[in-house]
Design a protein that fits this description.
Threonyl-tRNA Synthetase, Chain A, domain 2, alpha+beta, 655 residues, RNA-binding
Length: 655
RNA sequence: GCCGGUGUAGCUCAGUGGUAGAGCAACGGUUUUGUAAACCGUAGGUCGCGGGUUCAAAUCCCAUCACCGGCUCCA
């Protein structure tokens, strides 16, 4: 064995090389670079791996010193915060056993089993108080490689920490580590089985908030122990935490359920059953505009519209395999003349019946069948959520039947349509390509061909995508597209799947150039997805302020006094004949009051008519965001809004 | 489905064992208004539903329904 080097050299992010004594840690490196860096350092990234500040560095490592400026450092902060929380909970509830406590996208949680006690929201404050004490006491977090795993397991078992014992058993061959939390004297007061990494000390944790309680199962398995989960988050500064909480509050203000009450958009009723949406006139108007737009864009691309029954014999879903594979998500059968019928959970089998109703030549293809088809799915009661997760919804479903040679071109067409539709609503998006999973049907060659076609189409349109290896369903590779809304939240909406299953099950074919029968290729695609979900998402995206082309009421006419009513009615009639959605507020309320109300109803334009306007055939225009735009001739205003609607102009928010 | 929380007037909420309240909305009247709330008055509730405890229940207990948060992010 070669003698240990006395000096090691490490590479820094700027490319420079630093030489240090062997056995140095990230902290030593930080010290060697500059005292201010040493002070700000909270961890390291060694060869791309997030590590402790006190992790030993080896010769040739690439090392980056992590400070609180680096977003990656939040990972350390939150992971350590989770340990502080777990310790606090065990201090307050000594019978509590700890399970897992990972970080999440914007915080962390920890799962506990607390015999004979159920945490209530008031307890969160107590736990926060206890956490403050732990943080202020400046406990050290020390990595400790377990020398004798069996001994540690029995120790966990003695302490009743059965979850930790189970986890350690599982990781026994992976150099398992504990993180010890030590007081100023170096005495260990708490430990947790954890692979780390962690902050060096708890006094770095200064701003945290316990947010909510929930239930969770050990290892997410309903058969296993029910645990109590505490969700929390932490940030380096109180300001960052406050900003985060503010953003949460802002997002809550956009909640489509809340806005629905304000703007009279939709309702759900206990009497009619959960997860079933009633569209009120306002939101129905928005949906109508979207559907018209959707139809126009599909016509341009030579799609054909169809309608299929909502209730059909169960036989159809036996052939499609839905009964077998999707049965638990379907509504129960109903007996019609001794035969089981079902409400449809999907539109595809119906579209296949149309395709199958006659033989097809390759010359007929591609055939693109489109339907705004309402489907019914049984969703577990706890998962229902406003319009976003419901039990009956209308999908903008289309099925493209084509030859293998046409596949790539069809995908290109769908991606193009996606771009047109999504950009109209001001969404940006990103694609995810899901490839063959472990359990699949068909041949590897088929999968490879189809997956390559998808890939190639994505590349041709220049759409950035991530690959989700093995993420496809058993019958199809797919492209999923995630939208980013106005406040940066992600929404899964468009999806394109190339089905290897149904064409076989229904034995759909076409006659090729060679006179032989060939298997038809079938693409499922939804762009808006569920209209319920899409419209729910739009409400939040626009915070209830739909742009002019979508707004339920586009124009509100406000006559100043009774002598202006007649003129106002004339204008209302004129605008309505031009198919604008217009209302008039001729109540005997003050102008201020009526403006305020129209403004709160998010009506894009308010048209005030008084003496000045009467005499000049003009209107005083107020925009809900830009305020008073002054008086303009009526015809000029009409041109303006016609143009805005035609271009689907997003709302200017310059005020 | 499971865990925790919530359910009072159309909406937002107060009321925690002793005669159901407020603001806004609605309705009636006065006011005829120039760019985000005029004034006065009236009406509106089996306190989610069902059972129980009690002299007495919105309030305590049980059951049930609906809604809200969560149940994927791996020692």
């Amino acid at each position: 064995m070669a003698a240990e080097k006395e000096q090691i050299s490490v590479k820094l992010p700027d490319g420079s090389v630093k030489t240090l004594p062997a056995g140095s840690t990230g902290a030593d490196l930080a010290n060697a670079i500059s005292p201010s860096l040493a002070k700000a350092a909270v961890g390291t990234v060694i060869n791309g791996k997030l590590s402790d500040l006190y992790a030993k560095i080896s010769d040739g490592d690439e090392v980056r010193i992590l400070t609180t400026k680096d977003p990656l450092s939040l990972e350390l902060l939150r992971h350590s915060s989770a340990h502080v929380m777990a310790q606090a909970v065990q201090r307050l509830y000594p019978q509590a056993k700890i399970a897992m406590g990972p970080t999440t996208e914007d915080g962390f949680y920890y799962d506990f089993e607390i015999p004979n006690y159920k945490l209530v929201p008031e307890d969160l404050e107590k736990i926060e108080e206890e956490m403050k004490k732990i943080c202020q006491s400046g406990q050290k977090l020390v990595r400790y490689v377990i020398p004798d795993v069996d001994k540690q397991i029995s120790e966990f078992k003695e302490q009743g920490e059965k979850f930790k014992a189970e986890l350690l058993e599982e990781h026994r061959n992976a150099r398992p580590t504990l993180y010890l939390m030590q007081d100023k004297e170096g005495k260990t007061i708490w430990n947790d089985l954890c692979k780390g990494p962690h902050l060096p000390s708890t006094d770095l944790i200064k701003a945290f908030k316990l947010r909510k309680l929930s239930g969770a199962y050990w290892r997410a398995d309903e058969e296993k122990e029910q645990l109590q989960r505490v969700y929390a988050t932490s940030f380096w500064t109180q300001k960052d935490l406050d900003d985060y909480l503010y953003r949460i509050a802002e997002a809550e203000k956009r909640d489509h359920r809340r806005l629905s009450k304000q703007l009279d958009l939709f309702s759900l009723h206990e009497e009619t059953g959960p997860g079933l949406v009633f569209w009120h006139p306002n939101l129905a108007a928005v949906r109508g505009v979207i559907e018209d737009f959707w139809r126009d864009e599909h016509r341009k691309r030579n799609y054909q519209f169809v309608y299929t029954p909502h209730v059909v014999s169960e036989e159809l879903f036996a052939i499609s395999g839905h009964l077998e594979n999707y049965g638990e998500n379907m509504f129960a059968p109903m007996d019609i003349d001794g035969q089981n019928y079902r409400v449809k959970p999907m539109n595809c089998p119906g579209h296949i019946m149309i395709y199958k109703s006659k033989p097809h030549s390759y010359r007929d293809l591609p055939i693109r069948l489109a339907e705004l088809g309402t489907v019914y799915r049984y969703e577990r009661s706890g998962t229902l959520h406003g319009m976003l997760r419901v039990r009956a919804f209308t999908q903008d479903d289309t099925h493209i039947f084509c030859t293998p040679e046409q596949l790539e071109g069809e995908i290109l067409g769908v991606l193009d349509l996606t771009k047109v539709l999504m950009s109209a609503f001001g969404y940006t998006y990103k694609a995810y390509l899901s490839t063959r999973p472990e359990k699949y049907i068909g041949t590897i060659e088929q999968w490879d061909k189809v997956t390559n076609d998808l890939k190639s189409a994505l590349e041709k349109v220049g759409l950035a995508y991530d690959i989700e290896e093995g993420g496809g369903t058993f019958y199809a590779p797919k492209i999923d597209i995630k939208l980013f809304d106005a406040i940066g939240r992600e929404w899964q909406c468009p999806t394109i799947q190339v089905d290897m299953n149904l064409p076989e099950r229904f034995d759909i074919t076409y006659i090729g150039e060679d006179g032989n029968r060939h298997r038809t290729v079938m693409i499922h695609r939804a762009i808006l997805g569920s209209l319920e979900r899409f419209c729910g998402g739009l409400i939040e995206h626009y915070a209830g302020a739909f742009p002019l082309w979508l707004a339920p009421t586009q124009l509100m006419i406000i006559p100043i006094a009774e002598r202006h009513h007649e003129k106002a009615h004339e204008l209302e009639k004129k605008l309505r004949e031009l198919t604008f959605r217009v209302k008039m507020d001729d109540r005997s309320e003050t102008i201020n009051y009526r403006i305020r109300e129209a403004q709160q109803d998010q009506i894009p334009y308010m048209l005030v008519i008084g003496d000045k306007e009467m005499s000049s055939d003009s209107v005083a225009v107020r925009h809900r965001r830009q305020g008073d735009l002054g008086i303009m001739p009526i015809d000029q205003f009409i041109d303006r809004i016609k143009d805005e609607v035609a271009k689907r102009t997003p709302d200017k928010t310059s005020k």
